[in-house]
Amino acid sequence: MAYFIEDSCISCGACESECPVSCITAGDKAYVIDADACISCGACANVCPVNAPKEQ
């Protein structure tokens, strides 16, 4: 299942650079994960300081 980013995102950008398939981009208020491209590896969740990425 793909990951998504909760509202607790602080837009630090740590997750974007860790994503091996580059499916995380900066949104208006938080980063966004393209669910169709996400491979559910969890790399984003492992580096997030506020645990915003969650598995759907």
From TrEMBL:
PROSITE patterns: 4FE4S_FER_1 (PS00198), 4FE4S_FER_2 (PS51379). Keywords: 4Fe-4S, Electron transport, Iron, Iron-sulfur, Metal-binding, Transport. Residues 1-28, 29-56 form the 4Fe-4S ferredoxin-type domain. GO terms for molecular function: 4 iron, 4 sulfur cluster binding; electron transfer activity; metal ion binding. The keyword Glycoprotein does not apply. InterPro entries: 4Fe4S_Fe-S-bd, 4Fe4S_Fe_S_CS, 7Fe_ferredoxin. It comes from the Bacteria. Its cofactor is [4Fe-4S] cluster. This is Ferredoxin. It comes from Pseudobacteroides cellulosolvens ATCC 35603 = DSM 2933. The lineage of its organism: Bacteria, Bacillati, Bacillota, Clostridia, Eubacteriales.
